[in-house]
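Sequence design from tokenized structure. All designs in this work follow the same two-part layout: the structure record, then the generated sequence. An example of the structure record is given first.
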């Protein structure tokens, strides 16, 4: 497992996923009709990339353990993004209802 998460190919695939995911997020518009095909497609793609990043987190934790995983600042940033994605998937909001 360690050789997989430390491989250049794994890193390249995730870098591509980050770029594509960022483009998808940039295309989103909160004022667009929530039932439009574009909105539903972007939501599905966002969910797909969130799952990819969750799997990345799980693989790295299994390969390195939590302590080593959280010693790298990039992993902390990745973890924050995973938490934000999970909260978005669960439709968690802050503030008053």
């Amino acid at each position: 497992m360690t050789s997989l998460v430390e491989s250049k190919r794994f890193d390249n695939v995730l870098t591509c996923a980050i770029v594509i995911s960022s483009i998808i997020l940039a295309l989103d518009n909160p004022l667009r009709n929530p039932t439009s095909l574009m909105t539903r497609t972007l939501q599905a793609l966002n969910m797909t990339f969130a799952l990819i990043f969750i799997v990345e987190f799980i693989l790295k934790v299994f390969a390195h353990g939590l302590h080593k995983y959280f010693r790298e600042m990039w992993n902390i940033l990745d973890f924050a993004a995973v938490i934000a994605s999970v909260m978005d998937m669960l439709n968690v909001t802050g503030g008053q209802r």
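The mean pLDDT is 91. We note this feature because it recurs in several other targets discussed in the main text.
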